[in-house]
Amino acid sequence: MGHQYQAVQWNGNKVVYDLFVLASIVAFIAIFMIVGLQPHSSGHTADPVVLMIRALGTTAFMMLTIVLSIGPLARLSRRFVPMLYNRRHLGVLTFLVASAHFGLALLWYHGGGGLNPLVSLFVSNQPGDPFPGLPFELFGLAALVILFLMAATSHDFWLNNLSAPVWKALHMGVYVAYGALLLHVAYGALITERVSLYPPLAIGGFAIVALLHIVTGVREWGRDNGMKRTQSKASTEWVRIGPWADIPDQRAVIAPLPKGDRVAVFRDDQKVFAVQNACRHQNGPLGEGCLKDGLVTCPWHGWQYRPDDGVSPPPFTEKISTFDVKLEDGIVFVSTKPNEPGTKGVSVMVGASREESAA
User: Fold this and answer.
1) DSSP state of 319
2) CA-to-CA separations, 351 to 163, 245, 282, 332, 348, in angstroms, rounded
3) Which of 218, 222, 256 is nearest to 239 (CA)?
4) Which residues contact residue 228 at a Cβ distance below 8 angstroms, ignoring those fewer than 6 apart?
5) Are strands 252-256 and 262-268 parallel, antiparallel or unpaired?
6) More confident residue, 238 or 97
7) Using an 8 Å Cβ cutoff, are 50 and 109 in contact?
């Protein structure tokens, strides 16, 4: 959490994860090279350096596609949640592979002339270029710059000093990077090859990412609207959650609030309480987490908060908002007004009378 800053610590889980990713990268590039170096029907064999450039680029594109798919996959199935824990590792490795692709391509295609390689990249044109003066490499360079900024600010030091909203906005640039990378692949293939597998690869990757986000968005939209239809239009102070028995023990139900925010309503055996849904770390969905050792635990990176006042256990000091809860005829209601972060909220004991509710 945000108590102190120190070098990244690799626990057993991260070591296994990183070794698996590295082995997968090496295996994919090796297979790419072996297949690509096979003689064509014409007897022509691909240039090994050019093939390595393409292998690195293809690997980086596939890795970024996976990075963008992890979020919606974790929302669709809890089996993918552990991948969120290591997503920043995968993002940094994606930048390193992309850097290797860029560096090798820059030296191979622009390193032998009289111009500085970077200058040559900006002023060079390919034969048959449909957009003279706009080299396709610039799209790849733009994506690489964004990936660099994200990798450089991946440590929690930057998250705490930039603030969660600013840090989150910066890292949403991954979608801009992905768009630039799609243009880089499609534009480059248009210039250099008549027939290529790269445009279908780019289109397929985009389709997977888009479909996962659409499915996740539609599911959450349907869930939110289904809950909104049960709300009383006459009440603007309380949101109807539903029967307390429908809240899974040690877990939560997420409910939409009138102003667009969400609240996570947890049940701990016979006690029901509510906190804001967004974690202070990376706005992770607390309602998709669980109660662990009596603490609300974020499913993304394990940040924890006391359920009664929303304060992280010592020595940590992060705070989230709580919401007052009431129980009427077995139905749970939550106030639409959040309490100040770190302020004790009103919870209820299910099955108890109104006077027995715990404040």
Assistant:
1) B
2) 41, 10, 36, 11, 9
3) 256
4) 256
5) antiparallel
6) 97
7) no
Report, as an integer, the average pLDDT of 154-167: 80
Q: Which residues pair with 292 in a beta bridge?
A: 295
CA distance 182 to 175: 11
Cβ–Cβ contacts within 10 Å for residue 159, how many? 20
pLDDT tens string 218-255: 987 877 676 666 565 546 788 899 899 999 999 999 98
DSSP 150-173: HHHT-SHHHHHHH-HHHHHHHHTT
Other CB atoms within a 10 A radius of the CB of residue 267 amount to 21
Give CA–CA dist 52/29, Å, rounded: 8
The rounded distance, in Å, linking the Cα atoms of 357 and 325 is 9
Q: 348 near 357, Cβ under 8 Å?
A: yes
CA 306 to chain centre: 25
Q: Which residues contact 207 (CB under 8 A, 6 or more apart)?
A: none
